[in-house]
Write a structure and sequence with these properties.
74 residues, mainly alpha, 4 helices, 0% strand
Length: 74
C-alpha cells in the first residue's frame, strides 16, 4: 500500500493575518455587547469584571466575553 504525500504549503500560499488595535478591539466588543446584551462594551466590562452579569454562562455573554482580550492593552 502506497501513501501519497502532498507537498508542504509554501509561505506565499498562507492566508494573511489581520491584527486589530486595542481601539478596534473595543469597537468590536462594544458593537457585540450592544447587539447581544443591549449594553455598551464599557458597561459590559465593568459588570463582567465585578460579577454583576446575571447568568454569566449564557451563550450571549460568552460571545461577548471572548472578545475581552481584543479590547485590553497589550
Amino acid at each position: 500500500m502506497a501513501i501519497e504525500l502532498r507537498p508542504a504549503r509554501r509561505p506565499r500560499d498562507r492566508e494573511k493575518v489581520n491584527y486589530v488595535t486595542q481601539k478596534q478591539g473595543m469597537e468590536i466588543l462594544d458593537r457585540q455587547a450592544r447587539k447581544y446584551l443591549g449594553m455598551s462594551g464599557s458597561e459590559f466590562l465593568r459588570q463582567y469584571r465585578s460579577g454583576q452579569i446575571e447568568n454569566p454562562d449564557r451563550s450571549e455573554v460568552a460571545r461577548v466575553a471572548m472578545l475581552i482580550p481584543l479590547a485590553q492593552a497589550e
